[in-house]
Amino acid sequence: MSATGKPEWGLAALVILAVLALVGWRLVSEGRAELAKAATHHEVGQVTRASEHYRRSLRWSLPFGPTRAEAIGGLESLARSAEADGDRAGALLAWRSLLGGLAARRFLYSPANPSRERAKDELARLVALDEKAAIDAGLSPERVGAEHRDLLDREASPDPLWGTFLLVGFALWIVSLVLLIRRGFDPRGRPRWPEARTPIWGALVGFASFVLGLIFA
User: Fold this and answer.
1) What is the residue-wise DSSP string for 21-80?
2) pLDDT of 2-39, one tens digit each?
3) Which long-range contacts (CB under 8 A, 24 or more apart) does 72-76 make?
4) Which of 160, 84, 75, 155 is nearest to 118 (CA)?
5) Is 97 helix (H, G, I), strand (E, B) or coil?
6) Which of 157, 173, 170, 155 shows the shortest CA–CA distance to 217?
7) Residues facing residue 185 across a β-bridge
8) pLDDT tens-digit series, residues 52-101
9) Nearest to residue 57, comparing CAs of 16, 104, 10?
10) How far apart are CA 150 and CA 159, in angstroms?
């Protein structure tokens, strides 16, 4: 407690900023390391290894960080060069790595990403050109590609609205319980009802929001 009786919010904010800075530094450093490994394998034509490291770099990248754009460009270049060399399996792997890496960095309200849509289009096209499975016998390449594109668009992801209810409700629930513990009891452990009323309502509302988010997200 400070001399004014208030918590040391400045120290808490400093600790939070330090943690965020450390996390950001780790993300950037790991992303650059994976990108360097990917570029090395890319130069010597090792498609599988390069795709794996590009995908890892995407997973470590920040939403608007420099390594994100470089990894996307590297995977697209790798996929096109593999297809040009007749390595259709390598091209499929590179496009799938791009799509998987981008999917790993999605947020609740992520905007439409042209790179994701381009990867889906290329995957559908290559699948249609590839040797057909028995289930696709009798279907035209265009039909196979269209059906595969529809499958790629089906994402089992949380609903953004209910996902927000879940996250906000959980945060409100925890914060309200902390406030209840700090302010809702006197030094002898007896309830202070006027001070405890607001945290109790906050905890109830937060818990209800959290449960609804779990059910419907």
Assistant:
1) HHHHHHHHHHHHHHHHHHHHHHHTT-HHHHHHHHHHHHHH--TT-HHHHHHHHHHHHHHH
2) 444 455 667 778 888 888 888 888 888 888 999 999 99
3) 72/98, 72/102, 72/115, 74/35, 74/38, 74/39, 74/42, 74/50, 75/51, 75/101, 76/115, 76/118
4) 75
5) helix
6) 157
7) 191
8) 999 999 888 877 777 888 999 999 999 999 999 999 999 999 999 999 88
9) 104
10) 19
- Beta bridge pairs of residue 191: 185
Both tokens assigned to 76? 């697209």
Q: Which amino acid is at 208?
A: A
- Selection from 127, 150, 136, 47 nearest residue 94 by Cα: 47
- Cβ atoms of 106 and 157 within 8 Å: the answer is yes
Check: CB of residue 72 under 8 Å from CB of residue 113: no
Using an 8 Å Cβ cutoff, are 97 and 48 in contact? no
Structure tokens at 56: 């890892």
